[in-house]
Amino acid sequence: MQNRKFKSHTTKRRYDTVIIGSGFGGSAAACRLAPYLKDSLCVLERGKRYHMGEFPRDFFKPKDWWWRNEGSDGWTGLFDYTSYDTFAVHRCSGVGGGSLIYANVILEPVKEIFKNSRWPRECTEGRLITWEKEFERQCKKVHDMLRPQKIPYGLFKTRALRRAAEKIGSGDVFDTPPLAIYFGERGVYREDPYDRKCPAQIGCTLCGECVIGCNNHSKNTVDLNYLAVARNHGAQVFSQHVVRYLEPVAEGYIIHFTNLRWNYRDSVIAKRVILSAGSLGSTELLLRCKYGYKRYKFKTGPTLPDLSDKLGHYFSGNGDFGGLATYTDQVVNFAEGPTITGMINYSAGKNGQRFIIEEGGFPDILRSYLRSKFPDYGIARKIIQKIKTFAGFDRGLSKTFSELLGLLEFRSDHRMLMYLVMGLDAADGRMEINEEGYLNIKWDPEKSLPLYHEIENTLQKLTHGIKGKLMGNPWWISRNKVYTVHPLGGCPMGRSRDEGVVDCYGRVFGYKNLYVSDGSVFPTSVGSNPAMSIAAWGERVSEHIIDTERKKE
Ligand SMILES: Cc1cc2nc3c(=O)[nH]c(=O)nc-3n(C[C@H](O)[C@H](O)[C@H](O)COP(=O)(O)OP(=O)(O)OC[C@H]3O[C@@H](n4cnc5c(N)ncnc54)[C@H](O)[C@@H]3O)c2cc1C
Ligand code: SF4
After folding, report:
1. What's the pLDDT score for residue 366?
2. What residues flank ligand 1, with Cβ below 6 Å?
3. What is the pLDDT of residues 455-508, one digit of tens each?
4. Which of 52, 100, 179, 181 has most ligand 2 atoms within 8 Å of its beta carbon, as the pocket-test mutant?
5. Kind of pairing, strands 87-92 and 482-484?
6. 244, 316, 351, 379: which could join 525 in a potential S-S bond, CB 3.0 to 4.6 Å?
7. Is any atom of ligand 2 closer than 6 Å to the C-beta of 105?
8. What is the pLDDT of residues 312-357, one digit of tens each?
């Protein structure tokens, strides 16, 4: 596969810093470091770049939708869904990482987590840290970049969740969460809407497609801000470059990657490497470097054998849980508006557990597909109506089935309310790799059961309050498996190599100039949607690198 013919399409031979992965942690670091490093900084991202209007909508092109087996055979799409023994994990592959398909909720970490002794009270140099204050400071920077704001529209689904909360006496903890969305004039195209030389965006049209990629670029995804600023300062961002492993050398590290676009293997050398491939991606890469792996004809021994034995520990699904209330007495219409618009915040505690319940939308994907195929949307609408009449939907079918099929209509009275929940779980899962370098997650739910039981009880009560019927979480009911979109941990921080993989600045113990800047460093769940916490960590890591460089000058 070695073929250097297309080398001009890719990286230079040497960089000061290479960042692996372009999600919240990687982009925040790239943005802050770029003004110092200029064209000696590059980002290697395994997924594709998505310009305005380029997110897939065609059902019949699964390779555009799904990422599979390290992008082999052209499966280099947006969604990376993997079912492990005890967890099913849904993440994203693309320039911008999880921000491309996330639900835009920007919340600070729940302060309670910092009381857990897994969060080191002091840095490697013995300097004391107050994590609450540190996150407050870094989150302000994230806020300035992602510009979250509350939704300026009133939607049925937001009102339905509020009513459910009020019915069980939780109206006081209901709120609308800050969303990183450009709510400019609806449907209007604006060049550089935030005045910082970043790409154009269109005011949110409430189309409800946030979790399959916003074709209006209304979402403030990190490729449109953090990464765009980094590029303005000379950083190079390479899509479709999947990193396989690292090798330490005298000058720093050799980063071995596969260029998926031109299908060849190559490498670059960097003085400094920042791993930002997400909790699963970074942990998997480091596990391969610690233990070596063998796949087909390729074999590598351990390249970073002295990594901490804590590698793979403290995996958390961030307490993720879900449920669906059907036949409620509320108009919900969950295909309209941004995915999440309301939350019931129990992070101050409910019967000893801390969690947040949000309502979740789901895109009307059939409508999106037809829209992409038929320029005249009226025709698409007629086709759906014909199919429905022909198939006799809603007649003689089971109630649940016909309600699900009802989603294909353009009715505005769907009565199903989806719950998305996250909370403080025990964060005691463990990631491992097999001989071929593939990841698995092992976990015993026992210690997290009180949280899930309290969530289930609360969902029952909420649903009862709006006269609905609760459909439980299918992964949990059928296989005691947790479905998570918020994987955390794997490269936890600690005071020493015995306690963690990285220190409180993200520096990997035992390996100079190797950093981790993503959700893998958190030793506990963060209790809220984690994107802001992760970007804040990226801010902290890059701030420390810059401070250290300045001291040397
Ligand atoms: C459907 C959905 C909705 C969500 N909604 C919210 C929300 O509303 N609010 C919130 O706070 N969070 C939300 N999240 C979670 C959020 O997206 C993640 O927590 C966040 O993206 C993690 O950031 P990260 O920087 O750790 O990693 P990621 O954002 O996952 O970035 C890692 C990047 O590294 C790349 N990569 C991985 N391996 C390699 C490799 N070997 N070589 C090169 N590149 C590699 C990946 O392609 C990816 O782009 C949601 C997630 C999903 C899936
Ligand atoms: S609702 Fe539609 S336009 Fe608004 S942010 Fe979500 S995907 Fe973009």
Report:
1. 63
2. 20-26, 44-47, 90-94, 97-99, 101-105, 211, 242-243, 276-279, 281, 285, 340, 485-486, 518-519, 529-531, 534
3. 999 999 999 999 998 987 777 766 678 999 999 999 999 999 999 999 999 999
4. 181
5. parallel
6. 316
7. no
8. 999 999 999 999 998 889 988 888 899 999 999 999 999 999 999 9
**Full domain range(s) for residue 391:** 365-408
**Domain annotation covers residue 353:** no
Closest C-alpha to ligand 1, atom 46: 93
CA distances (Å), 408 to each of 244, 341, 411, 414, in order?
42, 22, 9, 10
104/241 same-domain check: yes
Structure token digits, residue 508: 């990997």
* 273, 374: one domain: no
User: Residue of the nearest CA to atom 28 in ligand 1?
Assistant: 23
- Atom of ligand 1 lying closest to residue 531 CA: 11
CA of 532 to the centre of ligand 2 (A): 19
Minimum CA distance residue for ligand 1 atom 21: 98
Tell me if 280 is assigned to some domain.
Answer: yes
* 224 — pLDDT class (breaks 50, 70, 90): very high
CATH value at residue 184: 3.50.50.60
8 Å CB contact between 41 and 16: yes
**252-259 vs 264-275, strand pairing mode:** antiparallel
Query: Tokens 């701030």 correspond to what residue?
Result: 543
Q: Would you state the pLDDT for residue 463?
A: 96
How many structural domains are present in the chain?
2
CA–centroid distance for 328 within its chain: 30
Q: CA-CA distance, 286 to 246, in Å (whole number)?
A: 8
Q: Does one domain contain both 196 and 312?
A: yes
The helix/strand/coil state of 486 is coil
Whether residue 329 lies inside any domain: the answer is: no
Query: Looking at the structure, do residues 109 and 33 belong to the same domain, yes or no?
Result: yes
380, 408, 436 - which closes a domain: 408
